[in-house]
Amino acid sequence: xxxxxxxxxxxxxxxxxxxxxxxxxxxxxxxxxxxxxxxxxxxxxxxxxxxxxxxxxxxxxxxxxxxxxxxxxxxxxxxxxxxxxxxxxxxxxxxxxxxxxxxxxxxxxxxxxxxxxxxxxxxxxxxxxxxxxxxxxxxxxxxxxxxxxxxxxxxxxxxxxxxxxxxxxxxxxxxxxxxxxxxxxxxxxxxxxxxxxxxx
Length: 200
Description:
Layout: H1 11-28, H2 39-44, E1 53-57, H3 65-68, E2 76-80, H4 88-99, E3 105-111, H5 115-123, H6 132-138, H7 151-169, H8 171-178, E4 183-189, E5 196-198
Parallel strand pairs: 1-2, 1-3, 3-4
Antiparallel strand pairs: 4-5
């Protein structure tokens, strides 16, 4: 595995992150190994779940965390929303995974060619009749005169903003991070390579 793991990451989160990055390499190389995709696996978890990570990803049909990370049933707690926009229900869904399921890792997974980012760049700073709540979560990242920004670069900046939003609005997430019970990995999915890369 060629991707360097971030420093100062708690041991439990590091173990999970390495597992997921190895799975991503399997996917990118066209050699998925996932076995836990059967009715038997589902029946095993019929009355409980124990995912080892929560992933906030876009609703985009090309971004499917279980496939990207070569995972099966019961392994990931996935929250999907257009543009990984952090509205109240999204934040509470993540809080559930952190507080109730005790996941040690949260992956914020932005991606290339995100329609929400392109739409926001095209319409900023106007208030549109559609997608108001989505844009309210994206516009704060844009600045006046920034209409020529690359949507992929914008997506990366937005992912950073999502982390800041989670830490500033959620005591559950903030406390878990400060107590080293949760690590937040800011990531970006490259459509051309199939690889998940860290955002600095």
